[in-house]
Amino acid sequence: MGLLIKNVTIVTMDEDMDIIDEGYIYIMEDKIQYIGKGEFSGAEESYDIIDGKGYCAIPGLINGHTHAAMTLLRGYGEGLPLMRWLNEKIWPMESKFREEHISVGAKLACLEMLRTGTTTFNDMYFFQDEVLKVAEEFNVRAVLGLPIIGEGWQEQLKAALRLNSNIRGKVSNSKIVKTMLAPHSPYTLSYDALKEIGACANDENMGIHIHVSETQDELEIIKEKYNKTSCELLYEAGIFDNRVVAAHCVHLTDGDMDILKAKEVSTVYNPQSNMKLASGVPRIVELLGKGINVCFGTDGTSSNNNLNMFEEMETGSLLQKLWYKDPTKLDGKTVLSMATAKGAKALNYENLGVLKEGYLADIVLLNLNKYSFTPLHDIYSNIVFSANGSEVETVIVNGKVVMEKGEFKELDEEKILHDCNKLCQRLI
Ligand SMILES: [Zn+2]
Predict the structure, then answer these.
(1) Phi-psi region of 117 (alpha: psi -120 to 50; beta: other; left: phi over 0)
(2) How far, in Å, CA of 317 to CA of 384, rounded?
(3) Separation of CA 406 and ligand 1 centre (Å)
(4) Residue 174 CA to ligand 1 centre (angstroms)
(5) Are 67 and 294 in contact (CB under 8 A)?
(6) Which of 274, 343, 368, 394 could anchor a disulfide with 295, C-beta 3.0 to 4.6 Å?
(7) pTM of full prediction above 0.90
(8) Pick from 3, 15, 44: which is nearest to 355 by CA?
(9) CA of residue 305 to ligand 1 center, whole Å
(10) Cα–ligand 1 centroid distance for 185 (angstroms)
C-alpha cells in the first residue's frame, strides 16, 4: 500500500535546490513515486496519509563515519589526552565487549540516530553480525565495516568477506544493509596488508572505509616509516584504486588533495570529534573547492559525545568560518547537502539523499512550529544553525514509517535505555 505525505514543505536537496511549498510526496514500497506541488491525485490504489501541514520534509541525514556501538562508552574516561585515553580507558574496555554489548550499543545508537533524523550510517566496529541484526530490526540503513587492524589482518579480512557474502547472498539478502572493507588506518596495518586489502576490494567490487590523516602523530609515524604522507602511501598501496570513504583527512598537503581528487576519494568531516580530541581543523572549504566530495560524520560517541548530525552540521560550519576568518564559508545549503546528497554519494548510493521521484524513501519531517523555525527567513539556516534535532518528529526509512509524531512505531525506547544502563554497570 502507498503512503502520501500531503501539505508539506519539501526541501528536496536536488541539483536545483528546489523547495516546494504545500507539496506532496507519494511513496510506493521503498521509493518516492511522485513528488510535486499542490493536491495529489495520481494513485489508483488506496493509501495511508500523513498530514504534513506545519512540517518540512528533508532527506534522512547520512552519518558518513561512526562506530555505533561505542555509545556504551559515552562519557567514559573523559578529559584524558588521546593516547592515555585510548590505552588506559577505551581499548581495555573494548576488549571486554562481546556480542551482547555490541547488540545493545547498536540499539542505543540506532534509537539516537533515528530520533535526531539520521537514517543511514557508515559503521566501523567489531561483531558486525550483531549490528546487521539491529539495523534490520530497527529499519535503519547501514553500511557495515568490520575493522581490519594489526597483526591478525588476514583472518579479519576473511571475516569481512564472509560478512559481505552473507549480506549480499542468501543468508540475509538485506535491502537496507551493505558492507565495505574497513582497514582501520595506514598506521595500524602493514604495507602488505594495505596492498592485499586494496586488491581484494577491487576483486570483490567493495568500497573501502578507512581513517586517513587524523592526527599529527599519524603523519609522523608514516613519515618515519615510509617517508611519505598517509595519502601518498594509500595511493601507492592501491587502496585508492577503489571507491574510498576517507574519514577525517585533517592533515593534508596540497599534493594529498590532488591525489584525493584524482582518485575520486570521498572524505568525511567529523568536526566535533576533531575538536574534542584536539586533532586539528581539516581544510574543508579547500577540499570542496577542488571538487572533492565531502560528507559529515559524528565519529564514535566516546569522542563526540553523541550521534546528533544537527550538532555536527552547525559545529562544522562554525569551525570553518572561524578557521578561514570568513563568515561566507560553508553556508547552510552547502552544509545540508554534505549531510544528505554528498553523504549518499560517498557511500555509493545512486538514488539516496535527495527527495526526488525514483529515489529511496528515507524522509524526515521536522516540526516547523518550534522556536528554531520561527521566523522562517531561510530554511537552510534554520535547519543548520537553529535546529538541534528535537524538531524531528516523523522518520521514514526505505518507505517504512519508523517514528511518527515523536513516537517509535515498534521500538521500545525505555527498555533499550534500561538494558544499556544495566549492561554498562556490569561492565565497569
Ligand atoms: Zn573513527
Answers:
(1) left
(2) 9
(3) 30
(4) 25
(5) no
(6) 343
(7) yes
(8) 15
(9) 13
(10) 10
In this structure, what DSSP letter does residue 302 have? G
Q: What does the pLDDT profile of the chain (428 residues) look like in tens digits?
A: 899 999 999 999 999 999 999 999 999 999 999 999 999 988 778 899 999 999 999 999 999 999 999 999 999 989 888 778 888 999 899 999 999 999 999 999 999 999 999 999 999 999 999 999 999 999 999 999 999 999 999 999 999 999 999 998 867 778 899 999 999 999 999 999 999 999 999 999 999 999 999 999 999 999 999 999 999 999 999 999 999 999 999 999 999 999 999 999 999 999 999 999 999 999 999 999 999 999 999 999 999 999 999 999 999 999 999 999 999 999 999 999 999 999 999 999 999 999 999 999 999 999 999 999 999 999 999 999 999 999 999 999 999 999 999 999 999 999 999 999 999 998 87
CA of 92 to the centre of ligand 1 (A): 17
Q: 95 C-alpha vs ligand 1 centroid, how far in Å?
A: 17
Q: What angle do CA 368, 372, 373 make, to 5 degrees?
A: 35
CA distances from 72 to 94, 294, 419 (A): 10, 28, 11
In the block, residue with C-alpha cell 511522485: 34
Residue carrying the nine cell digits 538541534 = 388
How far are the Cα atoms of 40, 60, 270, 336 from residue 73, in angstroms, in the given order? 47, 26, 18, 28
Distance in Å, CA 72 to ligand 1 centroid: 15
CA of 209 to the centre of ligand 1 (A): 10
